[in-house]
Amino acid sequence: MCIEMFRTRIMLFGTAFVVWLCCSHLFGGADGQVTDPVEVTALHTFKQSLIDPNQNLSNWNRGDPCMSNWTGVLCFNMIMDDGYLHVEELLLQNMNLSGSLSPELHRLSYMKRLNVMWNKISGNIPKEIGNITSLILLLLSGNQLTGSLPEEIGYLPNLDRIQIDENQISGPIPKSFANLNKTMHFHMNNNSISGQIPPELSSLPELVHLLLDNNNLSGYLPPELANMPKLQIVQLDNNHFDGATIPATYGNMPHLTKFDLSNNNLNGTFPGIFSGLPQLQRLALANNSLSGSIPSNIWENRTSNGTKRLIVDLQNNMLSNISGSYNLPPNVTVRLQGNPICLNTNLVQFCGSQNENDSNIQSSTNSNVACFVQSCPPPYEYVPSSLVPCFCAVPLIVDYRLKSPGFSDFRPYTNLFEEYLTSRLELKAYQLDIATTPMWETGHRLGMYLKIFPVYIDNTHHLFNSSEVLRIRGLFTRWEIRDLKIFGPYEVLNFILLDPYKDADLSSSKSGISKVALIGIALGTIAGAVTLSAIVSHLILRLNTRKRHTSSRRHLCEYLTVTIICGGSKIYHDSPLFSS
Ligand SMILES: *[C@@H]1O[C@H](CO)[C@@H](O)[C@H](O)[C@H]1NC(C)=O
Ligand SMILES: *[C@@H]1O[C@H](CO)[C@@H](O)[C@H](O)[C@H]1NC(C)=O
Ligand SMILES: *[C@@H]1O[C@H](CO)[C@@H](O)[C@H](O)[C@H]1NC(C)=O
Ligand SMILES: *[C@@H]1O[C@H](CO)[C@@H](O)[C@H](O)[C@H]1NC(C)=O
Ligand SMILES: *[C@@H]1O[C@H](CO)[C@@H](O)[C@H](O)[C@H]1NC(C)=O
Ligand SMILES: *[C@@H]1O[C@H](CO)[C@@H](O)[C@H](O)[C@H]1NC(C)=O
Ligand SMILES: *[C@@H]1O[C@H](CO)[C@@H](O)[C@H](O)[C@H]1NC(C)=O
Ligand SMILES: *[C@@H]1O[C@H](CO)[C@@H](O)[C@H](O)[C@H]1NC(C)=O
Ligand SMILES: *[C@@H]1O[C@H](CO)[C@@H](O)[C@H](O)[C@H]1NC(C)=O
Ligand SMILES: *[C@@H]1O[C@H](CO)[C@@H](O)[C@H](O)[C@H]1NC(C)=O
Ligand SMILES: *[C@@H]1O[C@H](CO)[C@@H](O)[C@H](O)[C@H]1NC(C)=O
Ligand SMILES: *[C@@H]1O[C@H](CO)[C@@H](O)[C@H](O)[C@H]1NC(C)=O
User: Fold this and answer.
1) Phi-psi category of residue 273: left, alpha or beta, with phi > 0 → left and psi -120 to 50 → alpha
2) What pLDDT is attached to residue 183?
3) Known Gene3D superfamilies for this protein (predicted)?
4) Lowest mean pLDDT among 13-17, 103-107, 264-268, 450-454
């Protein structure tokens, strides 16, 4: 009787075993290791070297990183040839983390984006990061990192951007950085980087932003820098550059929009090189010791292309006159306060108090006058640019910041910016609203809140569906919105989901595993489990035969069912399957 019951049970248990194995794999049980174990170990080590006061990473000790929704760990959406899932990104921005960066990070050898911005991490940048050849974004801004820049980082073949601004990095810029032939952005401002700018950097073919302001750099300005064909923004202010001249080559950079050398030790006469920079919007040489006269060719021909503003800031130098025309075209501002030339009181337009500031007003055109407020209670709101009047919907809100836009007046770029974002996000124009006046923040960053509204279908649809929320959020948080040069890179400080979206099941985006990948894993697991359960069943039958005389059959059956087949796991102890 027991044998018969036993066979039935074994069949049931075989099934249960398969299900259990599958579940433990899919939902990250202790055995369900699908992330490369080398990377799992590296993540543990990485976490151990951090201090996490808010417990933002508390779920890093359960289950599998890629399958169990570890905060900030984003994995590739597929299993690689080695049979494992791999970490694609660490997104650990703004978590008040301190401690240090473990060199073990380099074991995340498929990682594309390392983002630990705006924390309090100290210690060195581990040179081992130079081994992560897949790295595209190295984002370490806003921490307390010290030590010098590892030469090894210069050999990252795919690096698009290096952001280490607002740390306490010292030492020189390694010459090896001249190898970064895919890098578009050097954001290294507000550190203590010293020494000379290596002339070798001039061979960087893709560099667009060279932000080295607020450092301890010194020496002369390498004329070769002008050879970088795509350079758009050069910020070298607040350093210790000296010398009598600014290289003449700098007058020959066709894409230059911003050039800042304020607060250095430049002496000598003012160079006559700035007339051939058609895109220039800001030229700042304030707080140096430049003397001589200012050639008016800087602004003379701006009228023809009048929409772009030009600010020329030459305050606090030793400049004594202007050669050429004193007539300033509209939208050109020249500041000369603190120069001997301003002893001549006739020059109000040059020496007047500073009333033109860089910040600007974005007029919002909201014409929902005819819509009843009470028909659209918060968090619902009328979509400002909707073509259908009084379309009431709940937006997604993005706290968004342009890190280093190539202009100093946003207004002429508003339309272009809206087109850029809506096309990259595949939205209709009316779905995007710049909800707050864009505000300039320290470091020439432009912050704003964006609202993104669902598409109008009919009067019963007021919300995004969850896949659309995931898609849009993913584009922002995974940095998949390709930069447009003029706007430069962006940061997402917060992606706000209002109440109606809070309940949406958005967890799948965390691990980034698609259904297809899950099915793949499940099939592999089932194949393995079937084999395993066959072996286990076979063992049990043999054991049963041997132990027949040592204990009562009934007892043996109970014992086997619970302890051997379930391997000590209590998962099925109370399930109906076992309550015979
Ligand atoms: C980290 O945890 C704190 C406290 O729970 C929370 O307020 C904060 O939003 C978390 N930060 C992130 C980036 O998840
Ligand atoms: C981070 O720490 C600072 C001070 O240590 C505190 O003021 C701030 O609220 C913290 N932020 C979070 C998100 O915990
Ligand atoms: C890291 O790169 C160095 C050379 O830059 C090499 O010697 C070392 O073996 C690499 N380590 C790993 C783990 O790939
Ligand atoms: C970038 O540098 C690598 C290594 O020096 C070289 O193999 C590659 O061809 C270069 N790419 C470009 C676009 O110059
Ligand atoms: C800047 O460099 C000088 C030497 O060139 C050094 O004496 C000084 O301490 C450095 N300052 C900082 C803040 O690193
Ligand atoms: C300009 O600065 C350099 C380096 O500090 C110095 O040698 C030179 O005498 C200075 N020239 C003038 C005109 O002050
Ligand atoms: C005006 O703009 C046109 C087209 O953008 C450009 O070709 C031309 O050089 C500009 N002229 C001046 C004086 O900047
Ligand atoms: C020039 O120096 C003065 C005084 O130190 C400072 O107030 C001003 O902000 C500086 N100007 C620029 C453009 O940095
Ligand atoms: C300004 O434009 C005129 C006419 O096109 C040209 O002759 C002159 O050289 C230009 N001046 C500068 C400083 O570019
Ligand atoms: C000055 O700039 C504003 C916007 O930035 C533009 O609307 C205006 O046409 C410009 N003025 C001239 C004379 O070009
Ligand atoms: C960089 O440092 C300067 C001087 O300390 C400071 O005025 C400026 O706000 C800092 N920039 C950023 C982006 O924090
Ligand atoms: C995934 O993690 C996020 C935050 O870390 C949490 O809000 C969410 O509920 C988690 N989802 C699941 C299924 O655990």
Assistant:
1) alpha
2) 96
3) Ribonuclease Inhibitor
4) 13-17
Query: Tokens representing 143?
Result: 């921490």
Task: Tokens for 147, please give them.
Answer: 């030590």
Residue of 277, 305, 307, 308 to test ligand 7 pocket, by largest number of atoms within 8 Å of CB: 305
Distances (CA, A) of 128 to 144, 148, 159, 181: 19, 14, 15, 20
Cα torsion 566, 570, 571, 576 to 10°: value is 90
Residue 322: alpha-carbon gap to chain centroid: 45
User: Which of 65-79, 191-205, 272-286 is the most confident on average?
Assistant: 191-205
Cα 23 from Cα 575, distance rounded (Å): 15
Q: Does ligand 1 have an atom closer than 6 angstroms to the CB of 492? A: no
Query: Do the beta carbons of residue 36 and residue 84 sit within 8 Å?
Result: yes
CB of 24 shorter than 6 A to ligand 8: no
Mean pLDDT of the chain: 80
Please write the tens of the pLDDT for every residue from 411-435.
878 888 998 999 889 998 889 999 8
Between the CA of 276 and the centroid of ligand 9 the distance, in Å, is 9
Query: Could you give the CA distance from residue 39 to residue 71 in angstroms, rounded to a whole number?
Result: 15
Maximum CA pair distance of the chain?
117
Residues in the chain: 580
How far apart, in Å, are the Cα atoms of 446 and each of 6, 290, 479?
71, 31, 17
H or E, element range at 452? strand 445-452
Query: Which DSSP string corresponds to 486-515?
Result: TT--EEEEEEE--HHHHTS--THHHHT--H
Element of type H or E holding 525: helix 515-546
Preceding peptide of 412 cis, ω within 30°: no
Nearest atom (ligand 3) to Cα of 128: 1
CA 512 → CA 25, 75, 418, 424, 459, distances in Å? 16, 6, 28, 21, 33
- Ligand 3 neighbours, Cβ below 6 Å, are 130-131, 152
Tally of CB atoms within 10 A around 258: 23
E strand spans, 403-444: 432-434, 439-441
What's the gap in Å between 106 CA and the centre of ligand 3? 9
What is d(CA 153, CA 541) in angstroms, rounded to the nearest whole number?
Answer: 60
Relative to the alpha carbon of 71, which ligand is closest?
12
pLDDT digits (tens, 9 = 90+) for 96-149: 999 999 999 999 999 999 999 999 999 999 999 999 999 999 999 999 999 999
What does the alpha-carbon distance between residue 475 and residue 7 come to, in Å, rounded to a whole number? 53
Burial 160-192 (b: 16+ CB within 10 A, else e): bbbbbbbbebbbebbebbbbbebbbbbbbbbbe
**Closest alpha carbon to 243 in 197, 290, 295:** 290
Tokens 């049931």 identify what position? 12
The structure's pTM equals: 0.71
Q: 362 with 414: CB under 8 angstroms?
A: yes
Which residue has a Cα nearest atom 6 of ligand 7?
278
Both structure tokens of 139: 């984002």
Any ligand 4 atom below 6 A from CB of 415: no
Q: Are 511 and 66 in contact (CB under 8 A)?
A: yes
Q: State yes or no: pLDDT of 50 exceeds 70.
A: yes
